[in-house]
Amino acid sequence: MLRLHHAPMACSLASRFALVEAGLAHEIAFIHTTKGEQNTPAYRQINPRGKVPALETDQGVLTESTAILPFIADLAPDKALLPPVGAFARAQAQAWLSFLSSTLHTAMRAVMAPAVGCEGEAARTAAVARVAATLEEIDAHLAGRDHMLDAFSVCDLYLGVFLLWRAAPGLAGQLPALSNLDLFQQRLFSRTALAAIVGEELRLRMAA
Ligand SMILES: N[C@@H](CCC(=O)N[C@@H](CS)C(=O)NCC(=O)O)C(=O)O
């Protein structure tokens, strides 16, 4: 049984979405990072870095969204959540996953949870500008397209989490209106299963 260690509304939500879209049997182990549960000795046994996501599999623990999302997609080839291994389109998908992780996530984190020494107003303003520029680039890519790739994929699920973060404290009201991203987000969360998960996640996050 796959077991996803996940914090409500964290980047690990993309892996939760992917497990559901893949139709794979799984369990969710909630790690309330707002309460420091990622730093308990028990969780450090699972992921010594103290981060979510961590996916327990029958082959061991896998960390890093950019590894977990393709792993899940490949477990359900009938769902075609990524192009096949070896195809150029697969490498393009990997490029988007890397970009979302290394550029968009990093910029958003610098606003929402700045590193020690980077909490000042100038650093915050620069980080918001990096988020805005990154979102503008993705918005331009989505012009005339329904998905990040030619079809629905885990790239869409990963982007969807960061689009939800636009409403988080520190980012809400700070970003430009981007119509392609807004339409993409509406389409993505018109998928009933994903919308239900987001509702649960928001309730859990508010209760934390
Ligand atoms: N590169 C990692 C980043 C994981 C990460 O930063 N997770 C955050 C939640 S979005 C976390 O666990 N934060 C807890 C902490 O830093 O204490 C991935 O994409 O899987």
Descriptive key words:
globular, 208 residues, 2 domains, Glutaredoxin, 8 helices, 53% helix, alpha+beta
User: Helical stretch count?
Assistant: 8
What is the CATH topology of the largest domain? Glutathione S-transferase Yfyf (Class Pi), Chain A, domain 2
Strands, total number: 4
Task: Tell me the quaternary state.
Answer: single chain
Q: What small molecules accompany the polymer chains?
A: glutathione
Structural class: alpha+beta
CA(first)-CA(last) distance: 27 Å
Would you kindly provide a brief summary of this structure?
The protein is of the alpha+beta class. It has helices spanning 13-22, 41-46, 65-75, 88-112, 121-141, 154-164, 179-188, 192-207; strands at 2-6, 26-30, 54-57, 60-63.
